[in-house]
Amino acid sequence: MARPCHRVYAAVMRPTPRPGILQIANYAAGDMTLPNFSQPAVLAANESPLGPSAAAIEAARGAVANVHLYPDADTVALNEAIAKKHGLDPAWIMCGTGSESLIEVLCRTYAGPGDEVLMPKFSFPMFGIFANAAGATVVTSAAPNFTADVDALLAAVTERTKLVFLANPNNPTGTWVNRQAVAKLVAGLPERVMLVLDSAYAEYLEDPAYDAGLQYVTKHPGRVVVLRTFSKLYALAGLRVGWMHADPETITLLRRARFIFPVTAPSQAAAIAALGDTAHVRRSVEHNQQWRPWLAKELSARGIEVLPSGANFVLARFPGDEWKTADSKLKAKGVIVRPIPPLSGLRISIGLEAQNRTVVEALA
Questions:
Q1: What's the whole-model pTM score?
Q2: What are the boundaries of each domain within the chain?
Q3: What whole-number distance in Å separates Cα of residue 241 and Cα of residue 352?
Q4: Helices 98-110/125-133 angle, 10° precision
Q5: Which residues lie below 8 Å from residue 351, measured CB to CB, with a gap of 6+?
Q6: Which is the most buried residue in 198, 226, 243, 278, by most CB within 10 A?
Q7: CATH 3.40.640.10 fits 54-276, yes or no
Q8: Could you say which architecture CATH assigns to the domain 28-51+279-363?
C-alpha cells in the first residue's frame, strides 16, 4: 500500500491584516437546524413569528422578473415611502444592505487608527466588530443592571472619541433608556462626536417615555444619525434592508464609501409594499404586546431572571453555567434560542403561541 504523501511547507512570509482585524472574534449566527427535528422552533434571531406581509412577498416576486437589470442605486422610491411613513425628508434618508452595512460604512468613514468608538457594555456586537475592522479602538462604558448609563457614556468620552453607538432598545439585553436620557446624551456630547442611535426595535416600544431619536437628526445635523431596519417588525430579514436618517451632507460622504447598489430590486419592492400594509404591521405589534409580557411573567414565576425588554425578545438569565442546561432542555423540545454566555443567559425571541408555551414547559 502506498504511504500517504505529507507535503512539508517551508515557513514563508505572508500578507498581514489590519491591526484591528486580529482583535475580532468571529461572529457566529444563530443555529437554524436541530438534529431529529425537521422543523424546529427557531427563536434565536429575533425574527417576526408572523412572517412578512403577503403584499411584500408579491411585490418581491414581481420584481424578480427584472433581476437582469441593476436596481436603483439611490433607492429613490423606497426613500420616498420611508419619508412618507415617518414624516421625513427623502433627501435625509439612505438605505443599505441591512443596518449592518450602515454601521460598517459609518465606522469606515468616521473612525480609524488612533480614534475611539464608544458604546455601553453589552451592546450589539457588530458595533465593536466594525470599529475594530476600521482600525479604531473600542471603548465600553459601564451598564448597571445591563442598561446603558448616559452619565457613564459621557464620562468615557475623550479627545479621541469619534463615534458613540447606542442601541435603544438594546440587543442582546432588550433594555432601553427613556427620552430624557437620550436628550441628555445628545446635549452632553461634544460637537465633534457623532452619535449613532440604533433603533432597530423602535416599532415594538410604544411607551410614551421612549424616543427613537429621529427628531435629533434635524436638530443637530451631522452630529446625530438614526438607524432603522426592515428585518424585525416588517419580517424582511432575508432580504436585508436597513435605512438611516442623517443629514444630506453626511449621506453624501457615506455614499463615497458604500456599495454602489446596496439594496436589490426585489428587496426595495418588498420594503415599499411592507410599509403600506398597516394591518399586518399592527397584527405583528399586537402579537408581541401580548406574548412578550406573558413569556416574561411565566419564566419569572418559575424563578428565572428575565431582564425588562422593549424588543421582540427576552433575555433569561441563570446562575453560573445553568444556562447550558436550560439550552439543552429547550433543544430536547425542538426549540433553538440564542445563548449569550457573557450574560449567563439565553436570548429568546417571541414566537407563535405554541412555541412560547413550549419554551415555558421546557424550562419548568
A1: 0.92
A2: 28-51+279-363, 54-276
A3: 24
A4: 40
A5: 41, 43, 49, 291, 359
A6: 198
A7: yes
A8: Alpha-Beta Complex (3.90)
